[in-house]
Design brief:
Layout: E1 23-24, H1 26-40, H2 48-67, E2 72-73, H3 75-109
Parallel strand pairs: 1-2
Helix pairs in contact: 1-2, 1-3, 2-3
């Protein structure tokens, strides 16, 4: 929002004294921590669980923040945690594909059937 030169910004409505103070959502920090764990352990295939839990918690935290009417903050932590969780899931997918390719190549190189001596008909 831009303000025209020479005009004063509009004052926000005064808060009611019984309104709660804005507080960072506790799930936002948990989403970030789980997303970080998911990204760090993604290549080891262990990142699936924390990344999935982080994405589910992020969904719940967004729903709660919307219902709170702006009194729950921490959207930046949620975004970072979701990005890290998706990065962890991407690393898990890369690891699974790499393991499948390695397995297929080793299977293709392995001899099949019985290996008889050259003197056997």
């Amino acid at each position: 929002m831009t303000i025209a030169p020479g005009s004063a910004p509009a004052a926000s409505a005064p808060r009611h004294p019984l309104d709660p103070d804005p507080v960072r959502a506790t799930k936002a920090r948990a989403v970030f921590a789980l997303g970080l764990m998911g990204a760090m352990t993604g290549l080891l295939l262990g990142g699936v669980v924390p990344a999935t839990v982080a994405l589910h918690l992020a969904r719940q935290a967004r729903r709660e923040a919307y219902a709170s009417g702006g009194f729950l903050t921490g959207a930046a932590w949620l975004r970072r945690g979701e990005r890290l969780a998706w990065t962890g899931l991407g690393l898990v997918a890369v690891s699974v594909v790499a393991l499948l390719v390695i397995g297929v190549v080793r299977l293709a190189e392995a001899p099949y059937g019985q290996d008889f001596d050259p003197t056997v008909d």
